[in-house]
């Protein structure tokens, strides 16, 4: 009986460990993509957040990215980044939102 | 008495408003518009600022050339050198092609309108682009091709030329960065620690440019690059000419002398005759994003799959392969203030060894030299197999179109005055690019153990020492002993 309980406890601990670490891994995972901006939503010049919809070059799926960093927000506000620009993006899923960690135009001369 | 006070107050007000300069003046009142071209804006600027345009036209931002007062062995030359007629190991040169065809692309960063061919009129004030340095709003943008404003941005409503014209003020980091963050053909490519992340950054990246909220100074470029009559202080590693130099002592001297509160201040100060401030205070560069550390032009046109390195691609078919570096530890070299520079037409003595495109001049015996930090940038590019000079090839409308090197070399030669033998070979190059930005918070400055007592950040023997000067003696030790004997 004791043996059975021990095995069950071990299995439970193992399952819990996998669950915990698994969750951490997916939450902290950075997803990379290159895509073209189809839409930018920003609420006024004092906005502290914005969303940009990118069409993934590989999958052609639309991905909505939440942008929170000041520099990129500035570029949205003064139109240095606009719809039609190709973007190299890295984001992380946080509370169901794709939060941008890198949002950079691909263009160079 | 009252009259005197009134005059005095008036003078004080006048001086104060002059000191505030154009930053305090709302130009919306004077600059009405509507404007359809950059030149139309310049015409209005010239109504009050003709002298400023004349001053600006004497600077290298306009001429892209100056006497080579920074190049060892060419100090007395009266011929002018600069972006207009030099070669580097990035996008190489603006001369490649008949009648300067490349100007129409490279001219994106010329502060003028219309330098699309070699017959550009450098005496025409009406061609000065005031807005690229002074517009604060309206997303003023220059076109990638055509040496003009970006009319596509206006069509897309991404740029408002009227707003730009009315918003003029003292240049911000965004203004200077429009070109200088993108040196070498893209963001962060050329310079060591100078890229668009510095537009809005934190003290941890750069103590001078970091935001006030983060504890930084939020300084503009011209706080250090002191400007007089539109001549902007500073010297680029890749160029031949400077008007005035920038140095840390401009601010950090006298009452603001460094290390006064440091525990070992006196000991640290003994380093100052030999070690540049930047050496300890810029322990790493490219902290905001990766910079290009190597570029092999010889891989152009190949079917190489691009990989990612620090979120940047390692290959572009029209440019070749790249190596990127982030949080890069500099290399160190002596610098007396002069450079050794490969100039157009110079013969390559030994093609099996890397051609030095730029290297600081200095050594341990030269008492004026100090040890400075550098980005060591490597590459390869074509050399004429017969004449042994680096080739200026036509990339923009030739190599980038069909990847035909022979044709690109032949067409490029038409713009340079250099002969092309019909045979080319690739040679390796190296360039030492000064790390001058991204000054770290003092807590992150190099500590003794990083260089001394087994620390290996500095290669003492390569610098000419017998070993760690803490153990083997410094370069002034001998002189000090002689002084003691006397």
Automatic annotation (TrEMBL), chain A:
What keywords sit in the KW lines? Signal
Q: Which residues form the signal peptide?
A: 1-27
Source organism, top-level taxon:
Bacteria
Spell out the protein name for this chain. Answer: DUF5666 domain-containing protein
Source organism per UniProt = Geomonas anaerohicana
UniProtKB/TrEMBL annotation, chain B:
Ranges of residues in domain Cytochrome c-552/4: 199-253
User: What keywords are annotated for this sequence in UniProt?
Assistant: Signal
Q: Which Pfam families match?
A: Cytochrome_C554, Cytochrome_cB
Task: Write out the coiled-coil annotation as residue ranges.
Answer: none
Classification via Gene3D superfamilies: Flavocytochrome C3, Chain A
Signal peptide location? 1-23
By its UniProt entry, which NCBIfam families does this protein fall under? octaheme_Shew (TIGR04315)
Can you say what this protein is called? Tetrathionate reductase family octaheme c-type cytochrome
